[in-house]
């Protein structure tokens, strides 16, 4: 139930919105049983240049573009706890800088605040910023294109000051 | 390893908990090979009425209810960076108001704090609140029902003051 | 586009990174069509001992290890709104204590701050901490092993003071 708002399932006049509705059920079944379900794994390595948000949308889109799987679910997973993932606005770079500033203030790099200090002033804040953002993202894919909104980009949020190698595991499943 | 707690895989007396255990493996395989794997995409539009949490559980459940896919994984993805998703308690509405209040205090709508101010005092805070919550949710589904806990509801968290149209991409994959 | 960093898709010399690249496409298709896609549901119960982070990596890995599905996507979903999920460093336990301390300061257990107080001083903060962390995690799986980084562990983040029973719904889909 939507409080104070209205919710619409898409109407029949926009069949592209609704994969199931756009085709008679019989055809839908046949289509998938012919194509079958598949999956693919991939690995991306980012050489980050210290703290900040690094957009990786293009690289992920390029991988999807070459896949046998056309429709399905993409998952991006970062194999670290001091860097994280974020979907954010890709238009005004000031948005990214404001996000970095907000998190820097919320989680100060002050060793007096933490027990875990052996790996540097920026390490424990990095773990906390990671906890407040995402370790993975899943995005529906249609015709090999992520169903991102117009202003959405995928970012690696690097929380450490030093340059580092960051690993992303990608997975796509569908038909 | 569970520190200071105990972890149980579900016991045999609760076979409904464990799909694999509830059926001899042979039957499980047959069942899935007969049904095959399928997927479905959908699109929901919410006309939000300004800042707040809007429950969309019913609308998503209604879509699932009509699907050919009975068991699997549902993904809800919001195609915006100034509104987000949240699973929260659906019993006491004060919980929702307290959440709104907490985020409003944590991320003040004060243009002096941000560089990105051209779209209004509430825009940059909206992006930050989005970064602190979810752009997508994935939920296991059994017998066309989301495996939500008793008190869990799915909410769109609108961070902008103006009324707006918000788009959700839904994806279901399974058998 | 990566600002100030470099992004590499994995090179041909690391074929294990790239499932699709490692095999001629024809073989990939055959392999999956022979194996077919399957899924499995499971349920884990944690008896938590009050506030803190409880690692459940071993229990989840043990379940995966016995599955017919070898490669795919694992989803862990917590059926509560006053406990949540987190992937964090599993090496130095001080990291976990610092995370607990940070969230305790950020979301004080002070009833004067909240409307929803009937369930105790720690209930509303529990919901907020849940909103700031994760209700679900999805992790790519290869050869029945989660593609976690070397230092990553999966944790249930218990936000209530009292001992409680916490339920996790697990889902694995793949081939």
Can you characterise this structure?
- The structure is a homotrimer of 175-residue chains.
- With 175 residues, chain A is α+β, with helices and mostly antiparallel strands.
- Chain A has helices at 19-22, 25-35, 57-65, 93-106, 123-132; strands spanning 6-9, 38-48, 52-55, 72-78, 83-89, 136-142, 145-146, 152-158, 164-174.
- A 5-stranded antiparallel sheet of chain A has the order 2-9-4-6-7, covered by helices on one side.
- Chain A is elongated.
- Residues 10-34 of chain A have low confidence and may be disordered.
- Strand 1 (6-9) of chain A pairs antiparallel with strand 2 of chain B.
Q: Structural class, from helix and strand content of chain A?
A: alpha+beta
Number of helices of chain A: 5
H and E order of chain A: EHHEEHEEHHEEEE
Distance between the termini of chain A: 33 Å
Residue runs with pLDDT of under 50 for 5 or more positions of chain A: 10-34
What is the compact description of this entry?
3 copies of one chain form a homotrimer. By secondary structure, chain A is α+β, with helices and mostly antiparallel strands.
Helices and strands, with pairings:
The structure is a homotrimer of 175-residue chains.
Chain A: E1 6-9, H1 19-22, H2 25-35, E2 38-48, E3 52-55, H3 57-65, E4 72-78, E5 83-89, H4 93-106, H5 123-132, E6 136-142, E7 145-146, E8 152-158, E9 164-174
Antiparallel strand pairs in A: 2-9, 3-8, 4-6, 4-9, 5-8, 6-7
Keywords:
five-stranded antiparallel beta sheet; three-stranded antiparallel beta sheet; 27% helix; elongated; homotrimer; 9 strands
């Amino acid at each position: 139930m939507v409080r104070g708002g209205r919710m619409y399932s898409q109407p029949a006049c926009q069949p592209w919105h609704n994969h199931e509705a756009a085709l008679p059920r019989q055809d839908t079944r046949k289509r998938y049983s012919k194509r079958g379900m598949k999956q693919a794994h991939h690995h991306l390595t980012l050489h980050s240049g210290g703290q900040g948000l690094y957009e990786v949308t293009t690289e992920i889109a390029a991988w999807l573009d070459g896949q046998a799987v056309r429709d399905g679910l993409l998952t991006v997973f970062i194999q670290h706890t001091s860097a994280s993932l974020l979907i954010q606005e890709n238009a005004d770079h000031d948005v990214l800088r404001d996000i970095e500033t907000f998190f820097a203030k919320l989680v100060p790099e002050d060793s007096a605040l933490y027990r875990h200090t052996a790996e540097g002033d920026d390490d424990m804040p990095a773990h906390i910023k990671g906890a407040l953002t995402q370790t993975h993202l899943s995005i529906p894919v249609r015709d090999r294109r992520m169903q991102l909104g117009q202003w959405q980009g995928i970012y690696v949020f690097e929380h450490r000051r030093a340059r580092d190698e960051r690993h992303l595991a990608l997975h796509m499943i569908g038909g």
